[in-house]
Amino acid sequence: MSEGAALAVLGPNGAGKTTLLRMMATLLRPDAGELRVAGHECPEHADRARALIGYLAHDPLVYLDLTAWQNLELFADLYGVPRGGIGDVLERVGLLARAYDRPRTFSRGMMQRLGLARLLLTDPRLLLLDEPYGGLDARGAELLDALLGAERATRAVVLVTHDVERGVALADRVMVLRAGRAVLDEAAAGLDPSAFRERYEALVR
Amino acid sequence: MSVRAARQFRALLVKDLRLELQTRETAVAMVLFAVAAMVIFQFAIGTRTDETTPFAGGILWATLALTAVLGVGRSYVPEREQGVLDGLLVAPVSRMTLLVSKAVAIASYMLAVEVVAVPLAGIFFVEGPFFADLGLLLVVCLLANAGIGILGALFGSMSLFSRARELVLPVLFLPSIVPVVIAAAGATHAIAGVSNDMAEYRGFCLFLGIYALVFGLVAYATYPYVFDD
Description:
By secondary structure, chain A is of the alpha/beta class. Chain A is about 40% helix and about 20% strand. Chain A folds into 2 domains: about 1-50 and about 125-205, Rossmann fold (3-Layer(aba) Sandwich); about 65-125. Chain A is globular. Chain B is built from 10 helices and no strands. The relative contact order of chain B is 0.14.
């Protein structure tokens, strides 16, 4: 995948979508084959690849008992980015007023927005998103749309989703998995999102 | 350690200490457990006399070993229960930095326990002054804590992926720190009360240092694989 490219990975439960994403995120070691993330052979050079990866899963991957600010301070230090950007990022996700509150007191949508703030702060070249819209409120969904739309030019995106229409609309390439195998891998250009659903249903049946 | 790794280590350690300060779920529980264990030993052995004095070091380190099991079991709870482990593993942090920061956090909790447990052991079991030189005891504590911290971080992370982690952790960890308990109790005995056997003290301290170093190397070789798959 090149910069600006977006791949939507679709498939039913248990198809291997999350496993594939976790491999790309260097969290799982593949049994066979080659894995190259952002140009780096993995797992041999996983450390270099990780600096370029932004991973957003079902959980926001933040500590519930650290404040929002402290969480972002931690990830800024881990990724080696300046702490100076924390205020801006929190303002962008609408959490600046709650910067010194613990995520334990946040709603699900606010927590996911904090997860988004973690991504924005580290400015990753490769975005790996696992059902990112799940639990997001309207503001969060708007931010994520921007990240996957206008702000996508400098990064590649892999989006795992059950939402076939959204996946086809956002991505420029669509992959459908069934029982751990790709049963479709083609360009999304020219695909009608709502018409594609019928084809998708037939593929995964 | 590079500047970047040092910054990451500091961030991870500060995170653990902040979490502990805000939740008070690990060190406080460890201190309470150690006090309770000491009180039980005191009731079991009886009022301090000249005869109980030689056992003070052993009782102290047996208590600290059991307390360490509690602390190690709690050490990865935030990562496990709040699902943050993936966030740390996908960050560009070396696995060794993760290990060392967790080991130092566990050692810090142990030090907090020792601040309470050492005077208590003196009050309960030692006739006369417990230590002439607290600095010598501090060296024993730091060396023992290094071994406990490294093994605790290693086995604590290994047990993360086990369904029977409450069983696996004590079964793996406790036998592994028996040499630490023996050496730390020996070193403590060598300098406790009126004893002043510096040759014995140095020998046990050397053993504690070598033990921490050896298991540091074992952890260095094995830790990266703990989180693979």
